[in-house]
Structures are given as C-alpha cells and as structure tokens.
Amino acid sequence: MIQIQTWRDPRQDAAPSGRAGAGSDLIGARISMRNVTKKYGAFVATDRISLDIEPGEFITLLGPSGSGKTTLLNLLAGFQDIDEGEILIDGKPITHVPTHRRGFGMVFQSYALFPNMTVAQNVAFPMRMAGVDWATSDRRVAETLEMMRLSEHARKLPSEMSGGQQQRVAIARAIVMRPRVVLMDEPLSALDRRLRESIQIELRDLHRTIGSTILFVTHDQSEALTMSDRIAVMDQGHIIQMDRPLEIYRHPKSRFVAGFVGESNLIQADVLERRGDLVTLRSPSGHVFHADSRNVPASGTVTVLIRPERMALHETPVPGTAPATVTSALFMGETLRIGAVMEGGETLLIRCPDTAANHLPEPGSRIHVGWGPQDCWVLA
Ligand code: ATP
Hints:
The chain has 380 residues and is an alpha+beta fold. 24% of the residues lie in helices and 33% in strands. The protein has helices at 10-14, 69-77, 99-102, 119-129, 134-147, 163-175, 193-210, 221-227, 245-250, 255-260, and strands at 31-40, 43-53, 58-62, 84-89, 92-93, 104-108, 181-185, 213-218, 230-235, 238-243, 265-275, 278-282, 288-292, 301-306, 312-314, 322-331, 335-342, 347-353, 366-370, 376-378.
C-alpha cells in the first residue's frame, strides 16, 4: 500500500478561517471512540475500546507488539473497517467516511517519499492533489519547510537526504494542509537514538505550533513519556490505562503498566498497620517500611512499586535501611545500575546518578538500601 496522506477539503483551505497561516490558530479535532472492536477471524485485535481525545491533545498509544496500536490507528484512518462500535470526530460519526475524505495527515515509519520529486515537490504534493492554487501552495510549502528547518534542502531529492531529514520531509508533507488530526505510526523507530530524541523535541514544539490533535503510536516508553499529553497503554486489544505521563509513571494502575512503563521494583509486603495517611508494611526479609495508605487494604499482602531511582544506596548501615547483596553493577554513563538481593530473596534494581560520592560496588559486596513513604506506590 502506498502510504500517502489524505487531506481536508481544499475549499476549507481557501476559506478565510484564519487557519491558513503557520501560526498557533489551528485547532485540533475532538476524537471519540465508542466500543470500537476489530476482529481478524476469531481473533479480537481491539476489544470494545472507548476513549475521548480533546482537541489539540498529543496522545500516544503505547503497548507491546501485537497489542492493537496500529489496528486502532488504521481504524481511525479508515484503512480498515470497524466490526462494532463507532468513531466520532467533533461528535460526528466517520465510520462510513472514506479515508480520503477524513482529512487527516499521516506519517509512517517508512518515509514513503516520492524518490523522483524534490523535497519541495514532495511537500507540495498534497496541495497539488487538492487543487490548491500555486500561490497558496508555494507559500504554505515555504512556511512548512521553514517550520521543519528544511528550507535549505528544498531542491534536493530524498536520496540526497539523511534518514532523519527524510522523516522531517514526511512530517512536513503530513502537516502542509494543516490537518486537524495527524496520525503517526512509529515515525521515529528507524532513526538512531540521538536523532530520535532531537526529532521528539521538534515534534513536541511543532505540535504546539500547529495545534492539531496528534495520535502517535510507539512501543518505546521513553518516547511516550517525553512527547505525550496523555498516554494510552494498550495490551491485548484493550486500553489498560490512559493518563498523563507522570501519572502513568508514578501511579500505574496495574503490574502490567508498572512493568511496561519504566523499570520497577515490585515487592510483596504484608500490611502490619494502617494509621492515617500511612501504612506500615513488612517485606519477606522482614524489612519494615511505610507507604502512602491510598489503595491499601486493612490487612493482607500488597504489591509495592518502587522505581529504581527512588532507592537510596548506602555503603554502611543507616537507620531504616535494609541490607542487600550486590548481584550486578553497571556503569551506564549518567547513572549506575545496580542489581541486589535482600535476605528474604527480594530482588532489587537501583539506579543512582554518577556523582563523585557514588561508587560502583563490587558484585558480592554488602550494601544498605532504603526508601521513604513518598517513594512507594501500592498497586491497587
Ligand atoms: P506492533 O508494535 O508489532 O506494530 P501493534 O500493537 O501495532 O503491534 P497490531 O498491528 O495492531 O499490533 O496487531 C494487533 C494484533 O492483530 C496482532 O496480534 C496481529 O497479529 C493481528 N493482526 C493485525 N493485522 C492483521 C491482519 N490483517 N490479519 C490477521 N491478524 C492481524
């Protein structure tokens, strides 16, 4: 399939709506899904998914391979038919609107640029297809190339550009019509880490400028955390949690989300006492510690999440810490990554910044690990 964007009605473009410029006056569309189900034979790829995306939000679908992210994006794009449920744009059903009438901008992992067209011609292509007059088209292309820092490459062929530059051309082509919705399916996954990180920041800035609603698919959790207004974490055709990045990271609603987004220590602990906002817990090795009492039942066993960077490491015993034996120690540049095991068998992962005060311990050596109530999140 040739993955080319579709565009909104050119008459809208000509209308004096104030949306023609490259300014921040563009407003994204509201996207709603109601019980959206897609089956491949007996296999349910998306299972009664409902969500609401506010105009201008940057939403990331994050999940493991096969969780249904691309399927959901394709249903929204109109590349595939929905079996059950409904998708609405600004409250209007689009279930029977063909892809080319939906007016969405699209970017894919493969840049899908026309190799025989220059950068400017590639970016202008949607405008040509929509019959936009030359003057408007030229102005828009120039503005968009400028926005994507591609002006000096306008006359080059895609083959004369790096991967990162080609993807910026693909993004420019997707937004040249100033679509109200932009769909992006793993657009950065073919790029190396450094380039990916710099385009992530560019994309965030671009989003603020154009104001489109963006639905972005990735399986890279750090990309999702960096870029999104909200993240929808998917697993097996369901949205497991949809929240702001900070909420997803600090207050995941399940072990799956805790484990998929970021690294985690998950410790089973017995509830000893609840008093006000705090609960006293005991780990299998007998380490007694406190946590926020939200989500915590009056008794029984709970799972406590402590992020590796929230664990404090000491070389000598400090009150409130627990002894542990180092199993691995890695220098990773800005952080030290230390694996350890407590006396009751609890395995720990600790990340600490590479400062002059922090030494990389030897495997087999004894350390003391501590955390405070504010560092724990009890999974519901
Ligand atoms: P990835 O990160 O690997 O791209 P994803 O989360 O985007 O994964 P989808 O591509 O949406 O996942 O696929 C969801 C499930 O549906 C997978 O199990 C996949 O094998 C299945 N699937 C997708 N397309 C088809 C198809 N055309 N026919 C049959 N099964 C399909």
